[in-house]
Amino acid sequence: MAKVAIVYHSGFGHTKVMAESVAKGAASVAGTQVDLVPVAEAEAKLETLNAADAIIFGSPTYMGDVSGPFKTWADTTAKIWFGQGWKDKLAAGFTNSASPSGDKVNTLQSMWTLAMQHSMIWVSQGIMGGTKQGDLTLNRLGSYAGAMATSLNEAPGPANPTPDDQATAEVFGRRVAEIAKKFKG
User: What whole-number distance in Å separates Cα of residue 56 and Cα of residue 49?
Assistant: First the structure.
C-alpha cells in the first residue's frame, strides 16, 4: 500500500478545499492510504509523515511566498533534515492566491527547496497547460511545478477555488499517488 500525506496550511479555507481535492485524487488510486495533516497538527502527526511514501505540501501564497504558519512548520523539520529522514520520499506541492499570478511560482519554489533540503524527489504537475476535460480546463494557470489555484476573496466552496482548479488538484493528487505506487513496487 502506498501512503500519501498532505501537509497544508489554510488561512481562510481555500487551501483546505485544494487539499481535499488533492486527497480525493490520491485516494482514487487503488491501494493508496491518504492522510490530510494541517500544519497545526503536523508535529503531533510526525509518525504519519515519516511513514508516508509521498508528502504533498500545500500553502496559500501570502506576500509572494508560503504562509507564515507553513514556514514555521517547515523550520521544525530541521531534525528530520539532519538525519535525512525523508531522503528519497516523493514530494509535491500546491498553492493558491486571489490573483491569477500572485507570485505563486515562488511559493512552489519554496516548497521545492524544502523538498531538496530533505533529499526528496519532486513530482511535477504532469498536465499540459489549458488541457480540456469535458467542460473543465485543467491546469488553466499553466503551472508545471505543482498545482496552482485562484481563490477569490470570498468564502471557499464548490466554486471557490474554481471547479477547474479543484479538478486540476484532483488529477494532481492522482498523479502523485500513481507515482508513489510505482516507487513502492
Answer: 10
Grid cell locating 155:
468564502
Which three-class secondary structure state does DSSP give residue 38?
A: strand
CA angle, 113 then 19 then 44, to 5°: 75
Distance CA 42, CA 141 (A): 29
- State pTM to two decimals: 0.96
Q: Output DSSP code: residue 157.
A: B
Q: Specify burial of residue 35 (Cβ count, 10 A radius: 0-12, 13-18, 19+).
A: middle
Which own/partner contact pairs does 61-65 have at CB distance under 8 Å and 24+ positions apart?
61/95, 61/96, 61/97, 61/102, 61/103, 61/104, 61/106, 61/107, 62/11, 62/97, 64/102, 64/103, 64/106, 64/107, 65/103, 65/106, 65/107, 65/110
Indicate the residue type of 133. Q
Residues 59-105 have pLDDT tens digits of: 999 999 999 999 999 999 999 999 999 999 999 999 999 888 779 99
> What is the distance between the alpha carbons of residues 82 and 162, in angstroms, rounded to a whole number?
39
